[in-house]
């Protein structure tokens, strides 16, 4: 009666609860592939159908053989338990996305205005209803509901959850804010600029999701092994069955080894089922994707957005890191330090003409010149007055009319001001325009360049009349990061459109030996290709539109400081903070992730290499160790869980601090 009752109960487990294994195995076989479901279906079916045959044979003949119904039910139980634990663990790998989604506030305070633009009230609305140009009120201690620009008030905002920057950032009139960040002290009115899928937070979530779903190239190896794994295991199982059975028939081992009321076939079948069930292609399949999911999430939490497994894998092999100079190694806050006029023109008049020419340019050096001229003009002209003019009124009020403006990348600008041709730029611009550079001007420019400043030449009607010296201070962490990269076995290179003397002076300050100067924006990609010729992996770190061709050409493009949209599009890594330390974090995280993946593979392969012979009875003759099929099933389930848990240890990753970067050494 016990056997008949077991048959009834186990049939429910085998075909109702275990139906998923048959369905998945059938689908795999129809597609011409094999997977773990095929092994589970084979192992459980073998023990189940053998037991049914033994039971019916006993009922007909009266000769009762032992049945193994509990083997199939316990197998299915342990495999499903393993799957459940695995799902729990895998759920934790996507915690980063959950945290990012939770950053967005559910509601926002909309400021209602009358036709004249005056505030007449406030209304709480759902965040999903925010439209571009809406004015929103952000109270102290609440989250910023959308990306926007501050139009009123000042406060400190904690942006660590998005950028990884721990120090609160001052926000005042004109400052940009990111949705999901925390307003700390003062009240702010912001004008929404980007909402929905255009918002920074939505783009980060989208990037992380895409990265977590992408496959690293190393996964192809696991997929190939898994594809031939199941047929090999089934073959080994059959070999095990025949070896034990034939050996028993030939009397190679004593009958005392057989189970009670058992025979050689049943004895051999248990070993064979154990081999099928203990083999685990899943551990191989989980080794890479789980680690990639955790690493991309950890990267996002640290302000390093990774665009997929392929970028993550390549970054560990980086041999060269190419840095742009302006805005990457330097702070991008250029300021005029020298202004020398070589004719009788007054300095104020000279600066007014130069600023008028540069006002239409987006280049950082142009902005520095306009700002310097504006300050000079108003300290000179209006120092006696008590009123401080606004920035908008000052720009338009004192500049001269400009026509035929032309920006020449890597050279400067050319235009006409009040009918006179004005050229502002470097030596190359002057030479191409056929303008001779006097010796005294050349000497002054050389002095500037040797002190790491950029000399900007100014010509009116084909005569050079003055020179401006512009300095862009280095980022405080630049020298330490360069030293850290060298200790990691990575060679830093600086590529800039600036002249050779300035480039060498800057490179010497930060400790870079390899410098490429006077390179046009399009030429940066050619420099990268020259490093790639010997098969080296090259990374490019840049921030602007002019860096996007080089970011795309590099094996690993890193857009720093969440630069321009075009740079982000072209990059493989997006470094949210404007901090060079994150270049080291990106490489270090990649190396740590792939050492973990290799560890996962070693464990998964070693498990199968050791477990299959033990399940096949290799230790039974000498030590009497025999793994029943249900124990083999438990081992298989735990191997998958252990690989996922190994990947989850990456959540404990801590990025190298400035003080510890120099302790990093190449492994």
TrEMBL record:
The chain crosses the membrane at residues 6-26, 38-60, 72-89, 224-253, 265-287, 601-623, 629-650. It is found in: Membrane. Keywords: ATP-binding, Membrane, Metal-binding, Nucleotide-binding, Translocase, Transmembrane, Transmembrane helix. InterPro entries: ATPase_P-typ_cyto_dom_N (IPR023299), ATPase_P-typ_P_site (IPR018303), ATPase_P-typ_TM_dom_sf (IPR023298), ATPase_P-typ_transduc_dom_A_sf (IPR008250), ATPase_P-type_domA (IPR059000), HAD-like_sf (IPR036412), HAD_sf (IPR023214), P-typ_ATPase_IB (IPR027256). Coiled coil: none annotated. SUPFAM superfamilies: Calcium ATPase, transduction domain A, Calcium ATPase, transmembrane domain M, HAD-like. It comes from the Eukaryota. Residues 107-209 form the P-type ATPase A domain. It holds the Pfam family E1-E2_ATPase. Belongs to the cation transport ATPase (P-type) (TC 3.A.3) family. Type IB subfamily. This is P-type ATPase A domain-containing protein. It comes from Salix suchowensis.
């Amino acid at each position: 009666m016990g056997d008949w009752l077991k048959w009834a109960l186990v049939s429910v487990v085998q075909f109702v609860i275990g139906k998923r294994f048959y369905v998945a195995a059938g689908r795999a076989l129809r597609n011409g592939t094999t997977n773990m479901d095929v092994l589970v279906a084979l192992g459980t079916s073998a023990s189940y159908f053998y037991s049914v045959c033994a039971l019916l044979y006993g009922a007909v003949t009266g000769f009762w053989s032992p049945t193994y119904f509990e083997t199939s039910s316990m197998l299915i139980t342990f495999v499903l338990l393993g799957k459940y634990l695995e799902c729990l663990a895998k759920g934790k790998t996507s915690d980063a996305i959950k945290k990012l989604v939770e950053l967005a506030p559910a509601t926002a305070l909309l400021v209602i205005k009358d036709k004249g633009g005056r505030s007449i009230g406030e209304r709480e609305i759902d965040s999903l209803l925010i439209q571009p140009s809406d004015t929103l009120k952000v109270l102290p201690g609440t989250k910023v509901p959308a990306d926007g620009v501050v139009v009123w008030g000042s406060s400190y905002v904690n942006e660590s959850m998005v950028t990884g920057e721990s120090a609160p950032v001052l926000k005042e009139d004109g400052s940009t804010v990111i949705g999901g960040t925390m307003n700390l002290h003062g009240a702010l009115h912001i004008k929404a600029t980007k909402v929905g899928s255009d918002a920074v937070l939505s783009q980060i979530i989208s990037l992380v999701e895409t990265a977590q779903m992408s496959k690293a190239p190393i996964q192809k190896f696991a997929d190939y092994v898994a594809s031939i794994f199941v047929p090999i295991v089934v073959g080994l199982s059959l070999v095990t069955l025949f070896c034990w059975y034939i050996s028993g028939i030939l009397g190679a081992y004593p009958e005392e080894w057989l189970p009670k009321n058992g025979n050689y076939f049943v004895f051999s079948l248990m070993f064979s089922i154990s081999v099928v069930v203990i083999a685990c292609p899943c551990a191989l399949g989980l080794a890479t994707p789980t680690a990639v999911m955790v690493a991309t999430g950890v990267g996002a939490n640290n302000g390093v957005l990774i665009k997929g497994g392929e970028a993550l894998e390549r970054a560990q092999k980086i041999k060269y890191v190419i840095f742009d100079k302006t805005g990457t190694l330097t702070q991008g806050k250029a300021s005029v330090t020298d202004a020398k006029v070589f004719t009788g023109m007054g300095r104020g008049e000279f600066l007014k003409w130069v600023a008028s020419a540069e006002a239409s340019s987006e280049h950082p050096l142009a902005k520095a010149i306009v700002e310097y001229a504006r300050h000079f003009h108003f300290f000179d002209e209006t120092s006696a007055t008590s009123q401080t003019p606004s920035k908008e009124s000052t720009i338009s009020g004192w500049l001269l009319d400009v026509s035929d403006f032309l920006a020449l990348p890597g050279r400067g600008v050319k235009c006409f001001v009040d009918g006179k041709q004005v050229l502002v730029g470097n030596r190359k611009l002057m030479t191409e325009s056929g303008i001779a550079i006097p010796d005294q001007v050349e000497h002054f420019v050389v002095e500037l360049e040797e002190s790491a400043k950029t000399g900007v030449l100014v010509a009116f009607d084909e005569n050079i009349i003055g020179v401006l010296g512009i300095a862009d201070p280095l980022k405080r962490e630049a020298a330490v990061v360069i030293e850290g990269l060298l200790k990691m076995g990575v060679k830093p290179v600086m590529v800039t459109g600036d002249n050779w003397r300035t480039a060498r002076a800057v490179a010497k300050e930060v400790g870079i030996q390899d410098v490429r100067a006077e390179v046009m924006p399009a030429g940066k990609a050619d420099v990268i290709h020259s490093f790639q010729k010997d098969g080296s992996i090259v990374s490019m770190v840049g921030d602007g539109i002019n860096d996007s061709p080089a970011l795309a050409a590099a094996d690993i493009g890193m857009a720093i400081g969440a630069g321009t949209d075009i740079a982000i599009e072209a990059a493989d890594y997006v470094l949210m903070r404007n901090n060079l330390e994150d270049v080291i974090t990106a490489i270090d995280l990649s190396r740590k992730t792939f050492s973990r993946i290799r560890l996962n593979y070693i464990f998964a392969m070693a498990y199968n290499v050791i477990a299959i012979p033990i399940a096949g009875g290799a230790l039974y003759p000498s030590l009497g160790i025999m793994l029943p099929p249900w124990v083999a099933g438990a081992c298989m389930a735990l191997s998958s869980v252990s690989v996922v848990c190994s990947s989850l240890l990456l959540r404990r990753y801590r990025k190298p601090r400035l003080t510890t970067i120099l302790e990093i050494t190449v492994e």
